[in-house]
Amino acid sequence: MPGPGPLSGPAPDAAPRRRVAIVGAALSDCGRVDGPTPYALHAQAARRALADSGLDRSVIDGFASAGLGTLAPVEVAEYLGLRPAWTDSTSVGGATWEVMAAHAADAIAAGHANAVLLAYGSTARADIRARRRTANLSFGARGPLQFEAPYGHTLIAKYAMAARRHMHEYGTTLEQLASIAVQARANAAANPDAMFREPITVEDVLSGEMIADPFTKLHCCIRSDGGCAILLAAEDYVPDTAKRPVWILGAGTAVSHTSMSEWEDFTVSPAAASGRLAFGRAGLTPSDVDVAELYDAFTYMTLVTLEDLGFCPKGEGGAFAAKGRLLRDGDLPVNTDGGGLSACHPGMRGLFLLVEATRQLRGEAGPTQTLRRDGTPPEVAVASGTGGWFCSAGTVVLGRG
């Protein structure tokens, strides 16, 4: 019988996989930004991230971006004056940036790129204010969505329906969901870059304007402008960087559904799969995590992601969150900058999670910095993005260098 073919395993002289770190991270101007274009916010964030790394722009040979232009990331790369040999334009909603980070880390580890820049910028708020666009209630009515759109099944309605299912299945309460918004706002209070910093109460959340039952306005993310960028590089470049590295320890990605009729369980998100892969590849468990940055377009997203990543059993996310555990000085600090519920949410927020996680692990988060019980900065962080209406997920486990 013939032996295995040439594609059955790595070549005998295959190079070892390199370690990969985030070596630069930065925000552009965020919040209410009426002047610059989205391209300008990309450039501002990219320049700041590169300066943060201390490396020369000539090291960048990979670029990833989504959400802007007809040929993203080609148009944005041109605007930035880059001619990358490796590109990624994956677009899976809010999970895009964790998925891109996983792709970039794999490419760098395999030697297909050396330093990959991820950049994002959006003027979602300013565009509506200037009437350059309208609010996006849905993703359109083509393909599978044509069977849902005629019934008014908007984006937020899908999240609301999933939240109601969790409430029915496990007894989760409106007060528990509201407590997530309250804690996000409390975290934002210390963040000078947060768009909303005034304290709110559970009663404030419950008595607000109804958007999609059970979500009132404060259950929903804000609409802002802003951008950010991170630079990932091979371990070879780390000795030349200006800041301590934040290592990519493990990453996982997953997709679930587009049609709600194809979603088997409204109480389980694809983070259950992406988290399991990420922790497994990192050789860690949720109990090792010191700080979590989770996508929070709605309060229910935070709750179900906490469960699916393994921070608490399924069905107990409400009780877990309601005890103040998500505060910066809580048992599991979550969305330490205030998250999409209070700090900023200019569209696909996933890259902001990686920026904040990096700052936390470096001990450079300023007034939003969390500390371990021994007074030292966090050692391990997780950033988990969710896209669509729980259609996709990307989870990245990070470690302090």
From TrEMBL:
The record's annotation in Pfam families points to: Thiolase_C_1
State the InterPro entries in the record: Thiolase, Thiolase-like, Thiolase_C_2
Top-rank taxon: Bacteria
Query: Which residue ranges does the record assign to the Thiolase C-terminal domain?
Result: 252-400
- PANTHER family cross-referenced by the UniProt entry: ACETYL-COA C-ACETYLTRANSFERASE (PTHR42870), NON-SPECIFIC LIPID-TRANSFER PROTEIN-LIKE 2 (PTHR42870:SF1)
The molecule here is called: Thiolase C-terminal domain-containing protein
Species whose genome carries this gene: Streptomyces toxytricini (Actinomyces toxytricini)
